[in-house]
Structure formats: C-alpha cells, structure tokens
Design brief:
about 550 residues; alpha+beta; Potassium Channel Kv1.1, Chain A; 13 helices; 30 strands; about 30% strand; globular; RCC1/BLIP-II; BTB/POZ_dom
Length: about 550
C-alpha cells in the first residue's frame, strides 16, 4: 500500500476521532415493525409478540415473522406459493407455518419470484416458492409450495449466512465455503458455464483455498468477502457492478483488484450496484447509478470502486437490497443516511434522515417497501437476566463489595465477579473483606473493567481503552482484549495513531499493531507532522521507518 490508497483520490483522509466509542456485541434493536405497510394487517397485540420479521415480494406484500413463542407466521398475496403454506391462496390474516414447527431462524433471504432461502440456528437450509430456474436447489423446476430441506452437498455443513439474487441462491458455511444454485444465464452461480444449476454446488476457482466470512447477491451477481478483507465477485456485470473496471460478465470468482490494500468487512448489493464497508469505516460503491444509488453526486455508472463521502464520522453499517435501487448507511454516532431511489426521487448524495436504523429507510423510502435483512426485534418491556445484572453495577444498595480506586468507590457483587472472572474466582475465594484497594490501574479503567463484567460491553475513549487493554492482558481476559482492540480501531485518527501503535506493540496485540501501522501508512503525510510522531520512541521509530519502506511508503 502507498499513502494514497483511495481509488479516485482522498489521500491521507481519516475518519474523525470520536469519543467515547461504544463497543458492544448486542443485537439490533428495531422496535417499530409497523412502519412496513403490510403490518397494518396485524393487530397491536400480534405486533407486540413479533421477534423476527422479513417483508418481501415484488410489491412488499408478503411477510414472514416469528413470535416470542418461536412460532412462524406468514401473511400476504402468496405469489408462487412463497408463503410455504402448501397452496397459492392469499391470506389477509396471519397463518402459522406449521411445517417449520420447532425450527429457529438464523437468517433468511428472498428472490424476485419470490423464492425463500432460510437457514436455521442448527445450520440447516430450507427453501420454497418460485422455482422456474432451479433456485430452490431441490433438483426440479416445480414451484415449492412447502419448505423443502436442502441437504445435497450440504449434509455435513452448517450454513451460517444465506443470500438470494433475483433467481439464484447463495449460502455460506461455518468453515468458510460458499455454495450456489439456480439461474446462471450470466455466470452468477460461479460454475464457469451459463447452464442453470439445479442443486447446491461449491463455488471454487479463486475461492478454493479461501475462507469466506460474508456474502451478498445483486440481481444477477454474487460477492464474497474473505477473511483477509479481499472481495471476490462473479456473475452479471453489464452495469459495472462487479467493480472490475469493465462490463463483461464473470462466470467464476474474480478478485476486485482495485481494492488492493483495503480491508473490507461488509458488502451489500442493490439491484445492480454494490457497496462495501472497510475496517476503517469507509464506504466504496460501484455499478449502476441511474438513481444516484452510488452516492457520488451524479448519475454516471462506475465500474471501479469509488469512495462515498457520508460525513466525517466512521460508518458502521451499510444497507442495500437486490430488489431496490436504494442505499443506506449508519454512522458510529448513530446518524442514518440514505441515497438512490427514495420514494420516486433520485437522491444523488447521502442524505441525513431522522431515522435511528437503516431498516427504517427501506420501510419508508424503498420501492418496494421491503426489509433488506431479517429484522431482529427486541422487547422493551421485559428485563432479561443480563439486563437486570447491568442495572445492578455500581449499586451500593445491593453490593457486598466495594473497590477503592483513586479515592473513589466502585460497588460490586462478589458472586457475580467470581462467576464472570477467573481472577476474582481465586482472589475472592477466602477473602472476607468488603473493601479492596486498587492502585495498579486508574479509576476510569478499573471501573470500565468491572462494568464489562456486568454488561459485556465497554464505552471508553481510545486512549482509555489502551489502559483497559493493559488490564485485560494482565487478567488474561481475551474477549475484553478484543473489545479494547475494536474500540481503539474505531477511534483511531491521525493525532493518536502513533500512541495507539506504541500501545499495540507494548501489549503484544499483533492484529491491532498491524491495523495501526496500516492506518499510519495510509495517512502518512499528516501522521508524520503530529506531536506523537515527533515524540516517538527511538527503537519504535526505527522499526516503523524500516517496515514502512518495505511496503513502499517512500516510493515516488
């Protein structure tokens, strides 16, 4: 990589520093499913019971949802039997999908027919609906009126992600393999031919020895991100949606070479455009742009990855759906932007909305009003065990132990600390004291550590997260160590990059060290003018310059 790594410009441009940075692994909270018109057919009582939902169909007139009791219901026009009820009768009232009784849904996607591909929490795959192009993967071209378990070539595999194009299907297994089937007129099955694929076939070629971590489908194309952050693409390319610099179809996986040196974390596909999100919170887009769905300020198609400027804040989520020309993104600060086709208008630059999640963009502005992913709805009226414990952190009324740090008390519960942390399990075993003095760590750092034991999340500035990384290393709390590294990565900017690099070296956090080093190289001009660089440790500076020269940072 060199200092200007952004295709189309943007050298030395960094996301702004934000503090504190929230790092948590909690699920999506999306409470108002009523924003999708189809849900107006459900009563208030029924809506309260919904825990997962997917709205699909050519007019957004079909819905599948699960309830708090793990029952699956469907509702709508039932085109091609896509509700899985065994008939093609439309239903204006929710009907229970008994054939999947006892199954829990992990992920779900839909095509244009529509057809449905669903993976259970056990990793099984079920398909039903439109099947004129073998997109159900059951070896036939008969429409599937009830869910069919697809096990051919998948019998010993656990499927963890599914994606559908208009008439083809793609799944990802827990061991990083990708299987495809269905319509293949443009090579979207990745088999090297244009013959339709009636059963699951592993996508190999360039992906043969790669570990895929996430997948997506456009109308007639496929994307796969591997664990090194590279993106592989195949299928239809008439609008440049593969990002290869041309418009020729690609019958086997091909790496997007223009993203060299950029680590992609997520990919999302619209009807004929593609969005990717990098590990530095940057968004790139390419493909069709007749509605402004690339967010580049014009309506010209792009066959190469083009940076999308949303705002100075880091992007943490991108959203698109193969049945729409709409794009959306969410920033670390919680702002949601939309662009592309929005209720008939062409929005050619990211537009700040009042929404709190990207799902709302598709409910209110996409045509049709569908969901771009399986919604996960968390109840707001019931306190789970985890939520109850979160409330008890630093509560003097229920605590039986207090830590004295920097002259301030932090209140805790011995039994919880012993359950959650190996260190406390031994140190509190025979300890009758109700006060523990702590001088090795600062108050903010130690409080964040104790709070993590109650909440599984941290909320700290990158600089404070460095201190917590030290503590996590000392106590051998590996998951906390990963969260600290995540926080530091999300909060890196030119001013603090050298300090964070130094900390990564000190605490032997190799993945973080590599991330900080690449950030410094990509923003070299500005980083070398900071006070942090001027005050850099001599040995670290020597190593930095040596390593930077090896990756070509100083080439003219």
């Amino acid at each position: 990589p060199c200092s200007n790594r952004y295709p189309g410009g943007g050298a030395d441009k960094a996301p702004a520093c934000e503090e504190p940075v929230q790092a948590t692994l909690s699920s999506l909270k999306m409470l108002d499913v009523g924003k999708w018109p189809i849900f107006s057919l459900c009563s208030e009582e029924e809506l309260q019971l919904i825990r997962q939902a997917c709205v699909f169909g050519s007019a957004g007139n079909e819905v599948l949802y699960t309830t708090v009791n793990d029952e699956i219901f469907v509702l709508g026009t039932n085109c091609c039997g896509c509700l899985g009820l065994g008939d093609v009768q439309s239903t204006i009232e929710p009907r229970r999908l008994d054939s999947l009784n006892g199954k829990k849904i992990a992920c779900l996607s839909y095509g244009s027919g529509p057809h449905i591909v669903l993976a259970t929490t056990e990793g099984e795959v079920f398909t039903w609906g439109h099947n004129a192009y073998s997109q159900l993967g059951n070896g036939t071209t008969n429409h599937g009126l009830v869910p069919c378990h697809i096990s051919t070539n998948l019998s010993n595999k656990q499927v963890i992600e599914v994606a559908c194009g208009s008439y083809h299907s793609l799944v990802l297994t827990s061991d990083g393999e990708v299987f495809a089937w269905g319509y293949n007129n443009s090579g979207q099955v990745g088999s090297g031919s244009t013959v339709n694929q009636p059963i699951p076939r592993r996508v190999t070629g360039c992906l043969q020895n790669k570990v895929v971590v996430t997948i997506a489908c456009g109308q007639m194309c496929c994307m796969a991100v591997v664990d090194t952050g590279e993106v592989y693409v195949w299928g239809y390319n008439g609008n440049g949606q593969l990002g290869l610099g041309n418009s020729g179809n690609q019958p086997t996986p091909c790496r997007v070479a223009a993203l060299q040196g950029i680590r992609v974390q997520r990919v999302a596909c619209g009807y004929a455009h593609t969005l990717v999100l990098t590990d530095e919170g940057q968004v790139y887009a390419w493909g069709a742009n007749s509605y402004g769905q690339l967010g580049t300020g014009n309506k010209s198609n792009q066959s190469y990855p083009t940076p999308v400027t949303v705002e100075k804040d880091r992007i943490i989520e991108i959203a698109a759906c193969h049945s729409t020309h709409t794009s959306a993104a969410k920033t670390q600060g919680g702002h949601v932007y939309m662009w592309g086709q929005c209720r008939g208008q062409s929005v050619i630059l990211p537009h700040l909305t009042h929404f709190s999640c990207t799902d709302d963009v598709f409910a209110c502005f996409a045509t049709p009003a569908v969901t771009w992913r399986l919604l996960s709805v968390e109840p707001d009226d019931h306190l789970t065990v985890a939520e109850s414990l979160k409330r008890e952190f630093d509560n003097p009324d229920t605590a039986d132990l207090k830590f004295l740090v920097d002259g301030k008390y932090i209140y805790a519960h011995k039994v919880l600390l012993k359950i959650r942390c190996e260190h406390f399990r031994s140190s509190l075993e025979d300890n009758e004291d109700d006060i523990v003095e702590m001088s090795e760590f600062s108050y903010p750092v130690y409080r964040a550590f104790l709070e993590y034991l109650y909440t599984d999340s941290i909320s700290l500035s990158p600089e404070e997260a460095v201190g917590l990384l030290d503590l996590a290393t000392f106590y051998r709390e590996n998951r906390l160590k990963k969260l600290c590294q995540q926080t530091i990565k999300q909060g890196i900017c030119e001013e603090n990059a050298i300090a964070l690099l130094s900390a990564a070296v000190k605490y032997d956090a190799q993945d973080l060290e590599e991330f900080c080093f690449r950030f410094c190289i990509n923003h070299l001009t500005v980083v070398t003018q900071t006070s942090g660089f001027a005050e850099m440790d001599h040995d670290l500076l020597k190593n930095f310059i040596s390593k930077a020269s090896r990756v070509g940072a100083f080439k003219n």
